[in-house]
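Project standup — Tuesday

K.O.: blocked on the structure for the chain from last sprint. Re-posting the sequence here as requested.
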Amino acid sequence: MNANFWFETLNLWLLLALLVVGYGVGRWQERRHYRSLRLRELSLRHVVALNTRYVPEGVDASGAQLVSGSVVISSDYFKTFVAGFRAFFGGRFRGYETLLERARREALLRLKQEAQAAGATLVIGVRFQSTTIAGSSTPSVEIMAFGTALHTAP
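H.V.: unblocked you, prediction finished:
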């Protein structure tokens, strides 16, 4: 094997190195985000979010305010690369499922934070809206959570 062979395969080695780095960094960031989600969910567990249309029986609510939370999350290059193979062969792609799960949880947390800032401890009529953001080389999704924050008597 001569030096020309190694030079010609440099692109392949570079692609493999970038995929390994992308996988490692993506996993690290995803784990870090999950830790942040768990901690913030614990701190906001007193703000109850329901998808019901009406105030639950026995709850004395006064004042209502629209609250929302939105987030845009993008996939990393490794997941996008592997998704290309999944699209060719078909089947579930768990990498994108975790992306959507993280986005929904983050949007709900931001909704609860806005409700807490408004002095509310109950949010009813919670709905989610999702939008795909095109125009970039990696898939991105926006998730918006919205609902009606109610001020309840202690």
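K.O.: great, moving the ticket to review. Residues 10-43 form the longest helix (34 residues). The radius of gyration is 22 Å.
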